[in-house]
Amino acid sequence: MVLINYFFMCLIFGTTFLAIKIGVDAGVPPFLSAGLRFFIAGLLLFSFMVWRRKTTIGIFFRKEMFFTGVGLTFGTFAALYWAEQYVTSGIAAVLSATGPMMIIIIQSFILKQKGNRNSFIGCVVGVIGVTFLILPSFSIEISSFWMVGCFAIIVGEVFYAVGTIYTKNVVQKYDTTSPIALNAAQMMHGGILLIVLSLFTENIQLDYLVSSASMGSLLYLTIVGSMIGHSMYYWLVSRTNPIFPSTWLYISPLIAVILGVLFYHEYISWLTVIGTVTIIVGTVLVNFETLRDLLWRKGTVLKDIQN
Questions:
Q1: pLDDT class for 302, splitting at 50, 70, 90?
Q2: pTM of the prediction?
Q3: Alpha-carbon torsion 118, 121, 125, 130, what sign?
Q4: When you count CB atoms within 10 A of the terminal residue's CB, does the N or C end of the chain come out lower?
Q5: Is the C-alpha dihedral spanning 136, 137, 141, 146 positive or negative?
Q6: Segments making up each domain of the chain, as ranges
């Protein structure tokens, strides 16, 4: 079940960078777009979970939900949405792939947790692979906004890493509450903060919100990207560790390239092939111990069934 959910989560998240770019290019203010996406998705999911009696309304008012929302939703996506005004979705995916490495750095050097050499090497290999994958499409003019946009995404990944590590503790503390409900609550907090930020910093024009491109982007990101994808991510964090689900950031550029080839007849170079292989190797290295435990557990279950 873990590997199946991981596969579908990677597939979903692999399309979201392009969907964000479409919405931003359509003229929707980035903070407002991100805020509406996460608040609506969180509200619908949380209402459903309350209705099914999987959680209570009171969980929304816990301080842990606010702090998780600041890390996983507000900080991460405020940076990403704003930056995609100035950088391509491919470059955004490359820079977002630093997320798992940020987690390892924080755990090793700040939290003083014992590091895993395979995970660290895997992170480095994964970032190199993503770079190879996107390198053929790098045809940009360096500008100050481009540089600031790249830096903003990296800062966002620091928020993402802190939020992911903190999420593991939150899930353990509220182990009787569904991870989907916890995710919905944090998305609402992050969405509200993004909307407030938009009201103070952006010029909101309603005509941009009703175009087919902006509406399609918002609906896809809300339902598929947030309600389904982020719920899978939160569930995987609760069942594995903070690093394993985060490696979707290595797979997403690969999926973007495949979609481009299938639907837009984009060119594949030898660098793309090298990047693909490198990403797979990096992902396996990062998750070697987790994958080994999962396969061993699966093998043990099958042996017990046969006996």
A1: very low
A2: 0.83
A3: positive
A4: C
A5: negative
A6: 2-306
